[in-house]
Design brief:
By secondary structure, this protein is mainly alpha-helical. Helix content is about 50%, strand content about 0%. The protein has a two-stranded antiparallel sheet. The two termini are about 30 Å apart. Belongs to the peroxidase family. Ascorbate peroxidase subfamily.
């Protein structure tokens, strides 16, 4: 989250909202991609063309899977990312970022922080229609908003405190157009300022900050704006609380943190309900038969070794990504590592077949990786799987030629070790 928020300060806001949209359930259902046979929530009205940050969760999940495969749910990762996004959101200067590595109690850095109760499991299903009907709309009036939160066990005070999330982030013109053209209780100067970048028709995706003054700082300005009628989603009741938050940043921060914990506790899946996904975008698939128990734990270790070796290899010999890709192809009319076998006096392998002789490259890279993998987990991970991973990582790394990009790659790296088959 540190790297992410430095590169894209809005991402703190986007992950906070992603968590909210998941959290009328808190089960990572919002992270599932649609497939030909599965209709997830990403294309529900409040989410389509609007939710952001899925690839950040993918990157975190891939790293977490390397350390402890099949253990930490996507739902818990999203809860933690939302919390850290809020805490880090105003940390935009490198100096502060560095300071942050040392002082690291988050509280001093930006928004409030809170303890995230963990142990959620991931949904095995999703509901686009529930997302459409349960999530509040920007056209909702106050009683509809209160009712939507009450239906999830949150009271009006929670709702008002949580709305303070709009102290960060951006909204699309299509979300607030009707307010700046039609509402009588919006400051006229503010409305015409917004209208300049949000015409009465067209420009639907033009962005504007939800907090006019400090969109990248988690503070109580949202409430001060509400009072000055410079906000987009005001309705004029809950006044006493809005007044209090507008003058008492500490009260807002404390209520917001407490309400985030309550929101994060909405109907989590625990015990044996749900599952722990290995890829947040997809449901686990059924166990492949005949694989030894724990195979995917060791495959994850192999995956790291492949990635590290491929980084060095690609830097030393940029063509190697191409060569390993082809080696995999020539193995893969079978995908069984038969192409890697050397000829012997009594065995005629494939290396000297017409399309392969004097042409295939990269055998020694696979040898190096296999030797490392054998040191960690002898006799467990097949050469065929190693070759498949090396071909994938070679492709992902092939354009990484500059050292700076190489370093960046350590952080962005979401091509990394997501194991696709479940274990
Ligand atoms: C009270 C009911 C709420 C309504 C009607 C509402 C509505 C909206 C709308 C329409 C947007 C702009 C989306 C777009 O144009 O793409 C937005 C953005 C946002 N919302 Fe809410 N929201 C509500 C509650 C919340 C809550 C409870 C949270 C989190 C605790 C939250 C966090 C955010 C954030 C951080 C953004 C900016 C996201 C970004 O920049 O990517 N909202 N909200």
């Amino acid at each position: 989250m540190r790297t992410t928020v430095l590169l894209d300060p809005r991402m703190g806001a986007s992950l906070l909202r992603l968590f909210f949209h998941d959290c009328f359930g808190c089960d990572a259902s919002v992270l599932l991609d649609d497939t030909a046979t599965f209709n997830g929530e990403k294309n529900a009205g409040p989410n389509a063309n609007s939710l952001r940050g899925f690839e950040v969760i993918d990157t975190i999940k891939a790293e977490v899977e390397l350390q402890c495969p099949g253990t930490v749910s996507c739902a818990d990762i999203l809860a933690l990312a939302a919390r850290d996004g809020v805490a880090l959101v105003s940390v935009v200067a490198t100096s502060l970022y560095l300071l942050c590595s040392y002082t690291d109690n988050f509280a001093c850095l930006g928004g409030p922080s809170w303890r995230v109760p963990l142990g959620r499991r991931d949904a095995t299903t999703a509901s686009q229609s529930a997302a459409n009907s349960n999530l509040p709309s920007p056209a909702s009036n106050l009683s509809q908003l209160i009712a939507a939160f009450a239906a999830k066990g949150l009271n009006a005070r929670d709702m008002t405190a949580l709305s303070g999330a709009h102290t960060i982030g951006q909204a699309r013109c299509v979300s607030f157009r009707s307010h700046i053209y039609n509402d009588a209780n919006v400051d006229a100067g503010f409305a015409s300022q917004r209208q300049r970048n949000c015409p009465s028709s067209g420009g639907d995706n033009n962005l504007a900050p939800l907090d006019v003054q400090t969109p990248n700082t988690f503070d109580n300005t949202y409430f001060r704006n509400l009072i000055a009628l410079r906000e987009l989603f005001n309705n004029g009741t809950q006044d006493a609380l809005v007044q209090q938050y507008s003058t008492n940043a500490g009260a807002f921060a404390a209520d917001f943190a407490a309400a985030m914990v309550r929101m994060g506790n909405i109907s989590p899946l625990t015990g044996s309900s749900g599952e722990i996904r290995s890829d947040c975008r997809r449901l686990r698939q059924t166990l492949l038969p005949l694989l030894p128990r724990g195979y995917f734990k060791w495959a994850a270790v192999a995956c790291t070794i492949v990635r590290q070796t491929m980084r060095t290899t690609g830097l030393l010999d940029p063509r190697m990504g191409a060569s390993l890709l082809r080696l995999f192809f020539h193995d893969c009319f079978g995908c069984d590592a038969s192409v890697l076998l050397d000829d012997t006096a009594t065995f005629n392998g494939e290396k000297n077949a017409g399309p392969n002789a004097n042409s295939l490259r990269g055998f020694e890279v696979i040898d190096t990786i296999k030797a490392e993998v054998e040191l960690q987990c002898p006799g467990t991970v097949s050469c065929a799987d190693i070759l498949a991973l090396a071909a994938r990582d070679g492709v992902a790394l092939v354009s990484v030629v500059a050292t700076s990009l190489y370093l960046l790659c350590s952080y962005t790296d979401n091509f990394a070790c997501v194991l696709d088959r479940g274990d």
